[in-house]
Amino acid sequence: MTIIKIKEMLETLLRYEDSEITHTFCSEDNTFSLSYSKELKNFQVKNVEIGYIEHFPDVETTSIALYRIISTVEQEVTE
């Protein structure tokens, strides 16, 4: 997934901030979920297996973090 597609996905979450939308990314070892919290005004990326949640304040920061996660997931799938 390209960084542009990731940013579009994040902007969609912002547009529909009154709705509860969660995107899920899976690899062999980890599952990650992405959502936007209107109350906290930030994006949340959660490692579902261990319950660790990381918060990001904006589209740019979140897109970089997600790109790294997705790139790792895609690399694991092709190996």
Summarize the structure in words.
A hairpin with a 4-residue loop joins strand 3 (42-47) and strand 4 (52-56). Helices cover 42% and strands 29% of the residues. The model has no long low-confidence stretch (mean pLDDT 89). Helix 1 crosses helix 2. By secondary structure, it is α+β, with helices and mostly antiparallel strands. It is globular. The two termini are 17 Å apart.
Radius of gyration: 12 Å
Task: Tell me about the largest β-sheet.
Answer: 4 strands, antiparallel
Along the chain, the helix and strand elements come as HEEEEH
The count of strands amounts to: 4
How is the quaternary structure best described? single chain
Query: What percent strand?
Result: 25-35%
Please list the strands of the largest sheet in the order they lie side by side: 1-2-3-4
- Structure annotation, total helices: 2
Q: State the distance separating the first and last CA atoms.
A: 17 Å
What class, by secondary structure content? alpha+beta
Main traits of this protein?
alpha+beta; 79 residues; 4-stranded antiparallel sheet; 4 strands; 42% helix
Short description:
With 79 residues, the protein is an alpha+beta fold. It is built from two helices and four strands, in the order αββββα. Helix 1 packs across helix 2.
Please outline the helices and strands.
Layout lengths: L2 H13 L6 E5 L4 E7 L4 E6 L4 E5 L2 H20 L1
Antiparallel strand pairs: 1-2, 2-3, 3-4
Helix pairs in contact: 1-2
